[in-house]
UniProtKB/TrEMBL annotation:
Keywords: Coiled coil, DNA recombination, DNA-binding, Endonuclease, Hydrolase, Metal-binding, Nuclease, Transposition, Zinc. The lineage of its organism: Bacteria, Bacillati, Bacillota, Bacilli, Lactobacillales. In the N-terminal section; belongs to the transposase 2 family. In the C-terminal section; belongs to the transposase 35 family. Signal peptide: none annotated. This is RNA-guided endonuclease InsQ/TnpB family protein.
Length: 417
């Protein structure tokens, strides 16, 4: 019996850029809008049901409405399509509808599990587009691969998607193409960013690992993340902070002021922003600047995380609460610029991918503790951000602040194993 995606032991995600035709762009926009509409319709029905249940007086019209909504939410796909006939148009991918409903239910599931992101919210229209579909395999397909599903590769530069047809793509790693017969495709996301670039993200699974496990090299490292030099490890290696946003901040601010002026002029002339060519032209310039910073930062973080995981059997980092740290208005911009949370996420999934170990520990007192004798600096002697070097009053050891913290982080990580 053929295994499902969930039953496969190894999973991987790839994102490739695609180049759709004008007709394909229209279909992507229609499916994106429909996906957002279905999500919002589910959200609206649940909110109505919640508030109607707060009514304690047994009014017939309220009870009938509650019964109707409860029945519709049992089979939301059929109920929404029956209420809004335009969703039955042949332009729409039926699996897009199913995935929109699934995503809404998943959002509720995450809320009940984590209670941090809040309840599902209304998705407003923006300059980006996205929708999800799924790759299905027919009953006659005995060995699912990347070339025989409803989402499939037709050759090394083209793929086939439901409703869209044949799309040219670039950027699929050679290691995936070489093993196309051993890999099956799962959920597929079609998206467009604010600049107008189109992408297809493929969730793929296999019986065999996508990356060869790295050999043990008996190397352990603790890393201290900071704003002064981005990263210092317990081996005294320092990675400088590139500060990509600061490099482009002035140019971006100038472009945003220009965008704001054009928005005011369009409003004064009673033109919609979507129909104002000057505004849209400038919006594209701002989006390109922001995309450049995001891509530079992501590329930097990928190189750093891959080097750390490949060169060490164990990597230990401090568990940072970026949300709390961003409340410090003096450091908020610098904290957002470095991308610490993104780095920790990359280290976590790459450790699983390469068969390494990655831990996060409580950072409490890792900076204030002497890594040589364990003395903790407290009270008036407590270190401030300005103290980059200090001498332990107990054992007299001279410490470089960040290197000492990295050694303490590694020691804490080893103690938890």
């Amino acid at each position: 019996m053929t295994k499902t995606m969930a039953q496969l032991p190894y999973h991987y995600g790839v994102k490739v850029r695609v180049f759709p035709s004008t007709e394909q762009k229209r279909l992507i926009k229609r499916n994106s809008d429909a996906s957002r509409f279905i999500y919002n319709e589910m959200n609206g029905m649940n909110k109505d049901l919640f508030w109607l249940k707060q009514v304690k007086i047994p009014i017939t019209i309220v009870l009938n409405r509650i019964a109707d909504l409860t029945e519709r939410l049992k089979q939301p796909s059929t109920a929404i399509s029956n209420s809004h006939g335009w969703l039955n148009h042949p332009d729409f991918d039926s699996l897009m509808k199913a995935n929109a409903i699934k995503n809404y239910k998943t959002a509720w599931k995450l809320f009940h599990q984590v209670h941090q992101a809040g309840t599902p919210k209304f998705h407003k229209r923006g300059y980006t587009q996205t929708y999800q579909t799924s790759c299905l395999y027919g009953a006659k397909v005995l060995e699912p691969a990347m070339s025989n599903g409803s989402v499939r590769l037709t050759d090394t530069h083209h793929l086939w998607l439901p409703k869209l047809g044949r799309l040219r793509f670039k950027g699929l790693p050679p290691k995936i193409l070489e093993r196309a017969n051993d890999i099956r495709i799962g959920t597929t996301t079609v998206s467009m960013d604010a600049v107008g670039h189109y992408f297809v993200s493929l969730q793929i699974g296999s019986e065999h690992p996508f990356v060869a496990k790295q050999h043990a090299i008996e190397s352990k490292v603790g890393i201290d993340l900071n704003l002064d030099n981005f990263l210092t490890d317990s081996n005294e290696q320092v990675i400088e902070n590139p500060r990509y946003y600061r490099m482009i901040k002035g140019k971006l601010a100038k472009a945003q002021r220009k965008l704001s002026r054009r928005a005011r002029r369009a409003k004064k002339a009673q033109r919609r922003l979507s129909e104002s060519k000057n505004y849209q032209k400038q919006r594209l310039q701002v989006a390109k600047l922001q995309l450049k910073v995001a891509n530079q930062r992501k590329n930097f973080l990928h190189h750093v995380s891959t080097a750390l995981i490949k060169n060490h059997d164990l990597v230990v980092a401090e568990e940072l609460r970026s949300e709390n740290m961003l409340r410090n208005h003096a450091l908020a911009m610098s904290i957002s610029d470095v991308g610490w949370r993104t780095l920790l996420g990359m280290l976590a999934y790459k450790a699983d991918l390469y068969g390494r170990k990655f831990l996060t520990i409580d950072p409490r007192n890792t900076t204030q503790t002497c890594s040589h004798c364990g003395h903790v600096m407290t009270g008036k002697s407590k270190l401030t951000l300005a103290d980059r070097k200090w001498t332990c009053p107990s054992c007299g050891t001279l410490h470089v602040r960040d290197h000492n913290a990295a050694k303490n982080i590694l020691a804490k990580g080893l103690a938890t194993l």
